[in-house]
Design brief:
The protein has helices at about 20-30, 45-55, 70-75, 90-100, 110-115, 130, 135-140, 160-165; strands at about 10, 35-40, 60-65, 80-85, 100-105, 105, 120-125, 150, 170-175. The chain has about 180 residues and is of the alpha/beta class. The strands form 2 sheets. It has a 6-stranded parallel beta sheet with strand order 5-4-3-2-1-9. The protein has a 3-stranded parallel beta sheet with strand order 6-7-8. Helix 3 (about 70-75) links the parallel strand 3 and strand 4 (about 80-85).
Length: about 180
């Protein structure tokens, strides 16, 4: 997932397709070229298609992937990767059949170990702030020092650099840029 080297994933919840392209242009101009479109609205799949067509250089992830059906829709819409708030073994295995980058969410050491058993080396820490934020990631990085983390949920413009300073934090996700 070299495209995550930008270190920040702009998380969008699309409530309308009106002026979508203008919003994406502003994000690109501000330096954000990796986006996560959450599947929380009926506009999400169409938004992924529009963004991938109009801005093929932008990496677009599908967020809040909770079912196999949603995963199938995201892959068919042209998403570059998927993200989930939790760890669902069936979704991870299906994503592997597509050779589709997938970042499951974890909140506990047990879930981190389950991700390791499934061959995952990058997990979403969600909700990061509620779990203890930077201190929590420091603590779990001891025993799980080879795992890479993508904290979301409470990551802000004010604290995202502190997260990125942690050795095991590969990237962060947030919506502060809106």
């Amino acid at each position: 997932m070299d495209y995550l080297a930008s270190k920040t994933v702009a998380v969008l919840t699309i409530n309308s397709l009106d002026d979508l392209e203008d919003r994406i242009k502003k994000l690109i101009k501000s330096g954000y070229d990796v986006l996560e479109v959450t599947l929380r609205t009926s506009f999400a799949i169409d938004a992924i298609k529009i963004i991938k067509t109009a801005f093929p250089e932008v990496k677009v992830g599908a967020g809040t992937v909770l079912t196999i059906e949603q995963l199938d829709e995201c892959v068919n819409a042209g998403a570059d990767f998927g993200v989930a708030p939790g760890l669902n073994k069936e979704i991870i295995l299906k994503a592997k059949t597509y050779n589709f980058d997938f970042i499951p969410g974890v909140a506990t050491p047990t879930e981190i170990e389950a991700a390791i058993q499934l061959g995952i080396n990058l997990v979403k820490i969600f909700p990061a702030k509620t779990l203890g934020g930077i201190d929590y990631i420091r603590a779990i990085s001891g025993p799980y020092h080879e795992m890479k983390y993508m904290p979301t949920g409470g990551v802000t413009e004010d604290n995202h650099k502190e997260y990125l300073d942690l050795k095991n934090v590969f990237c962060v996700g947030g919506s502060w840029m809106f």
